[in-house]
Write a structure and sequence with these properties.
about 300 residues, mainly alpha, globular
């Protein structure tokens, strides 16, 4: 998947030196996160600025890596870049705007792909170009324009993510990377079942293949009991109450579990897990700040004091 990303100059730093730099930046991040959240959000900060800083940090890490590490980590970076791709498509659907250029300027996508997302073309034209661009890549998106016609932007997002995750789990050979993506798929599948239950959808939601939890060959109806089993298997926690089965409450619980799991494994793992944990932690801090910012803007003091990710 490395060819989908921008060919930036390589630093070829020794592994120990790179790990040392990551540890320093991680310590600074932890210190920021422990301070008062409102103090970390200036009066002029925007949601876009929070996420652009998150992009900058991933680009910094990518620049420090040699070719072999970039190749091994490419699925991880593409995973985050898909969020940028989806956000750009939403901007295009809404009529464009300067925001799309800010995100693309910092994006790790290849220059050719970024060029396909710039301009004033209609959504069907952009999606047809994306189909052609990804045609011979690991992320083949044949039929994306037709999905948009029938299911809108949400259908496109689901298609892109499902194709990506299933392709990574079929082809990824690094055990640490493969295990991380299985955890992500389990998390997303569990949230999908929670949302179907919330919306009273009784049919099987069509989960992403390749996870460890809740994706057996037998089609199962959506039920609270099924969701409890999935959450229990994923988090190893008993006594999950109905309140925490609501998607809004369940999401931070699952993401906190994922971060804790990766953090525990980083102490004995190699470079890949250390890099994953740092970027994942940075992402969760950005997500927390975004939630705090929106809460403060709406003057919802109760939500403003609540962490999304512990």
């Amino acid at each position: 998947m490395l060819r989908l990303l921008h060919e930036l100059p390589q630093r070829d730093y020794p592994g120990d030196y790179l790990l040392s730099r990551i540890r320093c930046r991680r310590a600074s991040l932890l210190a920021e996160d422990l301070s008062n959240e409102d103090e970390n959000l200036s009066a002029n900060v925007s949601d876009a600025a929070i996420w652009l800083r998150d992009q900058d940090e991933r680009q910094w890490l990518f620049r420090q890596m040699n070719h072999d590490l970039r190749t091994a980590m490419a699925p991880f970076f593409v995973h985050f870049e898909i969020n940028i791709l989806i956000q750009c498509l939403r901007f295009i659907e809404a009529g464009g705007g300067d925001e799309i250029h800010s995100f693309l300027d910092r994006s790790l996508w290849s220059l050719d792909l970024k060029q396909n997302l710039r301009g004033n073309d209609s959504m069907p034209e952009v999606l047809e170009r994306l189909e052609r661009f990804f045609h011979d890549s690991p992320l083949a998106l044949t039929g994306l324009a037709e999905v948009y016609k029938n299911q809108g932007i949400q259908g496109c997002e689901a298609m892109i993510r499902i194709i990506f995750f299933e392709q990574v789990l079929r082809t990824c050979t690094d055990p640490d990377m493969h295990s991380f993506f299985q955890d992500i798929v389990d998390l997303k599948n569990t949230l999908t079942v929670a949302k179907c239950l919330r919306w009273n959808r009784e049919s099987d939601p069509g989960l992403i293949a390749g996870g460890r939890v809740g994706t057996g060959v037998t089609v199962q109806p959506v039920s609270e009991d099924r969701l409890r089993r999935m959450v229990r298997r994923l988090t190893k926690k008993e006594g999950i109450t109905g309140e925490y089965l609501h998607p809004v409450s369940l999401e931070p619980v699952l993401y906190a579990f994922l971060l804790q799991k990766v953090t525990r494994s980083r102490r004995m793992a190699g470079q890949i897990v250390v890099c994953i944990e740092y970027i994942l932690r940075r992402y969760f801090v950005s997500k927390n700040r975004s939630i705090h910012l929106h809460a403060r803007q709406r003057e919802e003091k109760g939500l403003a004091g609540r962490e999304l990710i512990d």
